[in-house]
Amino acid sequence: MAYPRALAVAAASLAVLLAGCASTANRDQAASLQERAGLRLQLAGAYYAQGQFNIALDEAQQALTLAPGDAQAYGMRALVLAAMRQPVPAEKDFLYALRLAPHNPELSNNYGQFLCQTGRAAQSLAYFDAALRDAAYVSPEKALGNGGACSLAMKDPERATSYWLRAERIAPGMASTYIGLARAYYEQQDYRQAAFYLERLGKVTMMESQAADVLWLAIKVRHKLGDAGAEAGLAAQLRRHHFGSPEYAAYQSGAFDE
Predict the structure, then answer these.
(1) Nearest C-alpha neighbor of 206 from the set 231, 234, 165, 177
(2) How far is the C-alpha of 98 from the C-alpha of 116, rounded, in Å?
(3) Close Cβ partners of 191 (under 8 Å, ≥ 6 residues apart)
(4) For 180-202, b where at least 16 C-beta lie within 10 A, e where not — what string?
(5) Which residues of 219-250 are buried (b: 16+ CB within 10 A; e: fewer)?
(6) Tens of pLDDT along 238-257?
(7) DSSP element (H, E) containing 26
(8) CA distance linking residue 62 with residue 41, whole number of Å
(9) Does residue 125 contact residue 113 with C-beta atoms inside 8 Å?
(10) What are the Cα distances from residue 105, in Å, to 48, 91, 112, 125?
């Protein structure tokens, strides 16, 4: 009788078919979970950008529940925790995210910025440089700007200038780059170059809309260059828009070298 063998073959075929269906179902479920996690992560980023950190944290945690091994989700939660002034758990998340994705340039840049903000500027530069070595990094101007700011915090204006000049070549016309270069050149006592980049700043955004510290920088540059007319005009803008600011108080007291 051939029936037992035929039944065995049929049973084996059915087992293979069921296993294939189960495997497909598992893949579909995993893809669905990853997609839902991605949506949660996008929401976390949007709420973070709006300063709604509690909601952003909840969204990041939900993303991690759906995708426990997602480095980007850990990185997002780290950013939120840092913004909420919880540096210890934030750093733990940053480091774990980097263990999961050690060559992710965005994670490297964000952790570098965290190090700079927590008083470890000297350590931060290695992470900015690591991000910049990745040719696929879509926003290198971020790491360059952060590298410039942290170098200036370290009292290294020459290195800061190098970062910001690279940022200008990659993404010209950024107001933050021109402000950074003006600060770096001012610290090097190259007042003409500082004025040059402040003039560029004025071409991409109105000077009167600048923060008090930027207007005060512009006033000090013009003072150093002996341009009394430009200095007076900038001082009028500082008085008009930032009358109660420490910068205006410094101007009134003549603290140009402090």
Answers:
(1) 234
(2) 17
(3) 185, 221, 224, 225
(4) bbbbbbbbeeebebbbbbbebbe
(5) bbbbbbeeeeebbebbbebbeeebeebebbeb
(6) 999 999 999 999 999 999 98
(7) helix 3-49
(8) 8
(9) no
(10) 20, 17, 10, 13
CA distance 126 to 148: 13
Rounded Cα–Cα distance for residues 122 and 69 (Å): 30
Model confidence pLDDT, tens digit, residues 132-188: 999 999 999 999 999 999 999 999 999 999 999 999 999 999 999 999 999 999 999
Asked if pLDDT for residue 24 goes beyond 70, the answer is: no
**Backbone angles phi and psi of 188, in degrees to 5:** -90, 5
Q: Give me the half-sphere count of Cα atoms (radius 13 Å) on the Cβ side of residue 45.
A: 10
Whether residue 167 contacts residue 131, with contact meaning beta carbons closer than 8 Å, is answered with no
Q: Where are the alpha helices (DSSP H) in 118-209?
A: 121-132, 140-153, 157-170, 175-187, 191-204
Cα distances (angstroms) measured from residue 151 to each of 112, 113, 122, 126, 145? 12, 12, 8, 12, 10
144: three-class secondary structure by DSSP: helix
* Closest CA relative to residue 172, chosen from 203, 218, 149: 203
Lookup: tokens for 158: 């020459």
What are 34's two structure tokens?
A: 């990853």
Nearest to 34 by CA among 76, 79, 64: 64
* DSSP summary character for residue 51: T
